[in-house]
Specification:
By secondary structure, the protein is mainly alpha-helical. It folds into two domains: 97 residues, RNA polymerase sigma factor, region 2, helix turn helix motif (Rna Polymerase Sigma Factor, Chain: A), CATH 1.10.1740; 89 residues, Winged helix-like DNA-binding domain superfamily/Winged helix DNA-binding domain (Arc Repressor Mutant, subunit A, Orthogonal Bundle). Helix content is 67%, strand content 3%. The protein contains nine helices and two strands; from the N terminus they run ββααααααααα. The chain has a two-stranded antiparallel ribbon. A hairpin with a 4-residue loop joins strand 1 and strand 2. Helix 1 packs across helix 2, helix 2 packs antiparallel against helix 3 and helix 2 crosses helix 4. It starts with a strand and ends with a helix. The N terminus is likely disordered.
Length: 190
């Protein structure tokens, strides 16, 4: 099944095997992913060295392949298809995706649970601000507040992790702007 050429590992996958994997054959998918794993591990190691994040990069790349193998148009291009996903994971790594930013929920926990506003008018302002968000953005913010990680939220709303993070960023910017305006109006009214 495999052949190694030059510096880069190159695994030859039979078209029949890839076609079966594309059609959902679990054994074929498993064989394809097992064959891709050492290639991806080598790819990431050559780029970032021996780091603990390699396992996460490989796993996430293989998940990308597993989720999207049915979209592969040309079964002879499996490795290029897989390595494109690996490249996206590497770009996310360089952007800081694999850092401690995912620990946002744990960092905020010591401040205590969110409480309801004491005054009804404060609740209306918060409701009004939240209602300005799209239903998807509200759902993502709710899940984030409940402590779900970005990867879990992405799976829940059937989106990519990067898209979820962008939704959170945009939603908080919008809420910050709206609540800032409301606070300014309230301070002028007093």
């Amino acid at each position: 099944m495999g052949q190694q050429t030059g510096r880069l590992s190159r695994m030859e996958f039979s078209s029949a095997l890839v076609q079966r994997a594309k059609e959902g054959d679990d054994a074929a998918v498993d064989a394809v992913l097992r064959g891709l794993e050492p290639i991806m591990r080598g790819y990431f190691t050559r780029r970032i060295g021996h780091r603990t994040e390699i396992d996460d990069l490989v796993q996430n790349s293989l998940i990308r392949v597993h989720r999207s193998i049915s979209d592969l148009n040309n079964v002879s291009r499996l490795q290029a298809f897989a390595m494109k996903g690996a490249l996206y994971e590497l770009q996310d790594f360089y952007r800081g995706r694999y850092s401690a930013r995912e620990l946002l929920h744990e960092i905020l926990e010591p401040f205590g649970p969110v409480t309801e506003p004491d005054r009804p008018e404060d609740r209306l302002d918060l409701d009004r601000a939240l209602s300005s968000l799209t239903p998807l953005a509200r759902r993502i913010i709710e899940l984030r507040q409940l402590g779900f990680k970005y990867t879990e939220i992405a799976a829940e709303v059937d989106s990519s992790e990067a898209a979820v993070k962008m939704q959170v960023k945009r939603a908080f910017e919008k809420l910050r702007n709206l609540l800032g305006v409301l606070l300014l109006l309230l301070s002028q009214a007093w």
